[in-house]
Amino acid sequence: SGSHYQLFGEGCPVTCYDLLAPRGCQSLYRETCQCDDGYALSGEECVPLSECGCASGGMYYRPGEVTYRGQSCQEQCTCQPDGSMECVPSSCREGEVCRRSGGVLACRPVGTASCQTTGHQHYRTFDGRSYSLTAGCASVLAKVATATAGLPHFTVMVGDARAGSGDLHGALSRSVTVEVGGHQVTMWPGVTSKVQ
Question: In angstroms, rounded to a whole number, what is the distance separating the alpha carbons of residues 49 and 52?
């Protein structure tokens, strides 16, 4: 959408960042998809020039994208539809530290934590507490509770189901379902060739 095929297109296509902070281009022409007139490349898609985001600190941000400023993330800035950055006072929560990862400054968790499930009913949570839950239902093992910069939204579900009547011990089979990045993957124990 907003682009067309060109046999000898510009090697450096017009991007929203270039409109906001132009830089020189020495690339030769090449076969490519080129944004239509009145459009510019924003990430991997061509958008109308009016929908370009913000340039700040040598980085490009799409409208609605959030970044932090200051060595202790004392400002949280959001790219506005008009191309300006709106900033409000901010601070990292307990258990977080302001640091850069992949070039992006944000409040990030300190250290690591793990949770565990054993047997068919026993769980140890991230804070180290142990629980035994009734089998026969699906449980959320882990998920993102609140939006945190740099942490993708994910959910890990554990499902229990009683085995068929042919099983003398009424054993449970367990599935693990992971949802992340718009994808869902379900796995079963002992089934190496089946992933949905």
Answer: 5
Q: What is the pLDDT of residues 171-187, one digit of tens each?
A: 455 778 888 878 888 88
Give the separation between CA 187 and CA 174, rounded to whole angstroms: 9
Q: Which CATH code of 3.40.50, 2.40.160, 2.10.25, 2.60.40 fits the domain covering 3-51?
A: 2.10.25
Locate the domains of the chain by residue range: 3-51, 54-109, 116-187
**Adjacency order of strands within the sheet including 138-143:** 138-143, 154-162, 172-180, 183-187
Using DSSP, state whether 20 is helix, strand or coil.
helix
113 Cβ contact list (under 8 Å, min separation 6)? 126, 127
The whole-model pTM stands at 0.52
